[in-house]
Design a protein that fits this description.
Length: about 220
Amino acid sequence: MFNFAITAKSLFALLSQSSDVALVAGALASVIASLGLTPLEACRIRAVAQPELYRDAGLIGTSQIIASENDELGWKKLYAGLPSLMIRQVIFGSVKFLAFERASEAIFSIHPEFREATVTALGVSLVAGGISGALSSVVSQPADSVLTYVAKDSGGNLGVFDGASKMIREEGVKSLFNGLGSRCVWAGCIIAGQFLLYDVFRAAFGITGEDLNQALTLTLDLNK
């Protein structure tokens, strides 16, 4: 009978060989983040869609209004958009990490000397982060558009697929990509900054990729 730690370690080795660790890590991180982000996103969409009603209420006031709209659901109504948000975040997070890894590898394969200096290595992180942010926006834009449509026009009563179907019938397929250009620019800048800061602090503390691999291996070994 296999021990959980051995199975996990074997799985990690398999994923490492297929270079899918970034994809899985991004998906898992996005699932966890969605649990905290969903209520905030519900309040944000209300404030953008109807600023005259919700903007002055603030975050807490808006969340209380949403929770009071359905006595049976209560605060659970804040999580009505969780499935669609999770789909969007998983797609975005997975592609973000995967694209960053691939872009970094491509740049370093062309210019291996960039690894030798901290400044050039950080520059690669900045460029690869911008690329990953833009690509993540392209693939996750339809899910984001559906999320906004469902929350704004149906109050979160429609499911992901029902909302997408209704949105396409009423506004056409092009509506799934409304605002793509500005979102690519926004996400590209934000994600580039995230990866840049990550590498800045990692370099400041002298942490390498090998250190992170050793920490993971040690954690798995302790569970044997």
